[in-house]
Amino acid sequence: MGYSGHGFVVAEAAIVIGMNLVYYADVKESTINPFHLEYLGFEGEDYFRGWEEDFNYVLGIGDNKIRQKLAHLILSKNKEMVNVIHHSASIATMITIGKGNFIARNAAISPLSEIGNFCILNTGSIVEHECVIADAVHIAPGAVLAGNVTVGERTFIGANAVIKQGVKIGKDVIIGAGSVVLKDVDDNSKIYGNPAKI
Questions:
Q1: CA angle, corner 47, sides to 30 and 98, nearest 5?
Q2: Is 193 left (phi over 0), alpha (psi -120 to 50) or beta?
Q3: 122-181 confidence digits (pLDDT tens)
Q4: Which residues pair with 90 in a beta bridge?
């Protein structure tokens, strides 16, 4: 589900770890098809010709709200979503992880962390010990979450942002690239800078 930009990154990682990708779905047929996949049609419920097939689904959509909406649609059809975890990712054994996640090249997750469903832990991101990441979060390349950080649903943490240990970040928050977050962040906030401010 999703076959451009971020979708290409997920597809490449899926192939590297041995998944057999055959089809893609997106709002329109792609003019660029680097993995030579067959187009299944629009990813919405009325136009998608894949629901009758016994497929597993991989989420290749960067937008948190759209990714979560489509994940719920997939689940409503009693279909299975799989995680794509790049083989170079460093993942502790004592973690909890949901379904439909993408963990990219060189990402790291430390012990006792909890990763929800439909999340993106992008290239080189670091989730330290005992972090709790809710559903549909996107942690961009190079971002660092120190220990005991809590992140609410659909939050976006920009590239190379740093979140101080113990900070609680609400739902639907946008944290700008390179920001340093030292204090708790309320739901629906947009913050950036060093130190990060609304």
A1: 80
A2: left
A3: 999 999 999 999 999 999 999 999 999 999 999 999 999 999 999 999 999 999 999 999
A4: 108
